[in-house]
């Protein structure tokens, strides 16, 4: 047994160990938070060391004997082993790395265990010294110390970077991690001179200091209520989870980093793209991207539009290191903008013209020469004009509905749907008396297709309606299968679509001097574009409308 003062100091170390174990159990209640489990292991290892070391020193006959005392050996082993969960805690708590497998932990622990055993054996005189042994112990001690320092650095730096955390909290945790190392090493130095009293005091400080600081951070700052891992992982998730295409390029415009959305969109692997000029991927330089309002990208069979943003980034000295390039998809926005512009101009143009027709014919009916014998011609014109206006309004409502809502994919038989549309359009055009033209329909027996059928049916109906209305003798409709969907071709032998209407369609807008007669062609274009398909018009001999529709089950 030692003196009452020495025993009291070792008793304080044991009580600090009890507190550390209690804190470990308290923290473990939040086991699902990042870093909690390794932090609890780190704390309980120190706690057990404090209890066993303090008790063994109190009951030992000569706690200050020249060879390494049991309490000191327990401290060395415990501190060495605690550095592994401390390092894992630091990585998980700060969010730098959260997926430690058991095999990784085991490999990290092997040098620590060997160092602990050999250090204790060497200090107690049970292992003969030598140059190789000294070198090995030096390197392994640096290895263990490296774990401690890296953990302290990560915790302090991360709490400093995030405004919702206190730097005091980070410093307190760092000192708690360093406290046991400092106390145990100091006690080892003091054990011979000035003696066991000073050594026991340093030993007690090695457990009291971390116990107090850990309790301070847990209860004073709620350290696991809001962990820095949320900020770190959230920051990484911005680029990883966003639908934007994000590139990081250096001063030479070479790609040094990109998010998964880029590799998915362009079909390139990350290793292939890194180091390549961004112009190789986007076919545009940074200067060209800065000057563009929208960047168009052909992906598969669909054309998508993006808003490009090029933002230079600098280091802490203001030196530009490269640029962050972000492409935000605006295909839906541009389609909506185009739809509003076209609908507004077409409706105003047709409404004005139709009202003028109705008004002039109504005025003609009131003229004196027709007062007693009104003609059917003017009345029929009024009725036809009103019907045309109502039909235009119906088309506008249909287009607005399928373009503005989200895609709703269902599976149906394309062959059966087209057959029904042909029958419905023919009956509507001839009031059920049969078509004036011959409709030839070449199709597979069955063509199952997963797509948004409201948009597709609207496009197909408009194409078939336009062909039957303008054909002289024959309309030919063909369905063929291709790699990722179906191609539908509608051909008629009529006069062909006027160039002015196709020019409006290609330009993507209606102007006072360049506009179509209605919404039929726009209904085809917007319906197919909604499905990420393509549509083309040929007017060399009659009109041929070719539509490709991807099968969503294949893409």
Kindly, what is the distance between the CA atoms of the first and last residues, rounded to a whole number of angstroms?
Answer: 79 Å
Low-confidence stretches: 511-516
Briefly note the structural class of the backbone: alpha+beta
Overall spatial form: elongated
Number of continuous helical runs? 18
- Report the average pLDDT across residues: 79
Sketch the topology as an H/E string, one letter per element.
Answer: HHHHHHHHEEHHHHEEEHHEHEEHEEHHEE
Please give the share of residues in helix.
Answer: 55-70%
**Beta-strand segment tally:** 12
Task: Write out the CATH superfamily name of the largest domain.
Answer: Rhodopsin 7-helix transmembrane proteins
What does this structure look like?
- This protein has 555 residues and is α+β, with helices and mostly antiparallel strands.
- It folds into three domains: 4-232, Rhodopsin 7-helix transmembrane proteins (Rhopdopsin 7-helix transmembrane proteins, Up-down Bundle); 242-329, PAS domain (Beta-Lactamase), CATH 3.30.450; 334-550, Histidine kinase-like ATPase, C-terminal domain (Heat Shock Protein 90, 2-Layer Sandwich), CATH 3.30.565.
- 60% of the residues lie in helices and 15% in strands.
- It is built from 18 helices and twelve strands.
- It has a five-stranded antiparallel beta sheet. Strands 7-9-10-12-11 form a five-stranded mixed beta sheet, with helices on one face.
- The radius of gyration is 40 Å and the shape is elongated.
- Mean pLDDT is 79; it is low at 511-516.
């Amino acid at each position: 047994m030692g003196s009452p003062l020495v025993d009291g100091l070792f008793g304080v170390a044991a009580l600090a160990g009890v507190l550390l174990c209690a804190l470990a159990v308290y923290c473990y209640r939040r086991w699902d938070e990042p870093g909690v489990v390794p932090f609890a292991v780190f704390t309980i290892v120190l706690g057990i060391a404090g209890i066993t070391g303090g008790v063994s020193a109190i009951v030992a006959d000569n706690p200050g004997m020249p060879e390494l005392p049991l309490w000191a050996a327990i401290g060395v082993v415990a501190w060495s082993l605690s550095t592994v969960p401390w390092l894992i805690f630091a990585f998980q708590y700060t969010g730098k790395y959260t997926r430690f497998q058991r095999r990784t932990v085991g490999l990290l622990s092997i040098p620590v265990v060997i160092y602990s055993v050999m250090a204790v054996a060497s200090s107690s005189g049970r292992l003969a010294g030598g140059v190789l042994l000294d070198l090995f112990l030096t390197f392994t001690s640096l290895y263990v110390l490296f774990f401690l320092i890296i953990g302290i650095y990560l915790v302090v730096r991360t709490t400093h970077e995030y405004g919702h955390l206190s730097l005091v909290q980070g410093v307190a945790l760092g000192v708690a991690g360093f406290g046991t190392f400092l106390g145990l090493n100091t006690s080892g130095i003091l054990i011979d001179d000035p003696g066991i009293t000073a050594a026991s005091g340093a030993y007690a400080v090695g457990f009291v200091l971390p116990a107090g600081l850990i309790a301070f951070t847990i209860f004073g700052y709620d350290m696991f209520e809001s962990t820095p891992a949320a900020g770190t992982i959230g920051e990484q998730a911005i680029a990883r989870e966003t639908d934007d295409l994000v590139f990081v390029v250096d001063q030479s415009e070479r790609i040094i980093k990109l998010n998964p959305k880029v590799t998915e969109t362009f079909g390139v692997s990350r290793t292939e793209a890194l180091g390549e000029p961004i112009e190789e991927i986007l076919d545009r330089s940074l200067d060209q991207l800065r000057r563009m309002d929208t960047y168009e990208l052909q992906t598969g069979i669909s054309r998508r539009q993006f808003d490009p943003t090029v933002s230079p980034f600098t280091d802490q000295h203001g030196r530009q290191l490269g640029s962050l390039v972000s492409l935000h998809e605006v295909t839906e926005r541009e389609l909506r903008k185009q739809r509003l512009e076209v609908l507004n101009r077409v409706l105003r143009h047709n409404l004005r013209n139709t009202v003028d027709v109705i008004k002039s014919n109504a005025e003609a009916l009131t003229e004196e020469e027709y007062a007693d014998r009104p003609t059917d011609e003017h009345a029929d014109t009024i009725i036809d004009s009103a019907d045309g206006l109502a039909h235009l309004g119906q088309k506008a409502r249909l287009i607005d509905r399928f373009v503005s809502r989200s895609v709703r994919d269902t599976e149906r038989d394309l062959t059966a749907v087209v057959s029904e549309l042909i029958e419905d359009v023919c009956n509507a055009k001839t009031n059920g008396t049969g078509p004036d033209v011959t409709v030839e329909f070449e199709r597979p027996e069955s063509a199952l297709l997963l797509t948004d059928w409201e948009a597709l049916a609207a496009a197909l109906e408009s194409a078939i309606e336009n062909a039957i209305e303008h054909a002289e003798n024959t309309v030919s409709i063909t369905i063929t299968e291709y790699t990722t969907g179906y191609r539908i071709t509608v051909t008629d032998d009529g006069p062909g679509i006027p160039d002015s209407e196709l020019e409006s369609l290609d330009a993507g807008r209606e102007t006072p001097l360049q506009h179509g007669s209605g919404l039929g062609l726009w209904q085809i274009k917007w319906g197919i574009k909604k499905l990420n398909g393509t549509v083309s018009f040929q007017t060399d001999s009659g009109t041929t409308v070719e539509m490709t529709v991807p099968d969503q089950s294949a893409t």
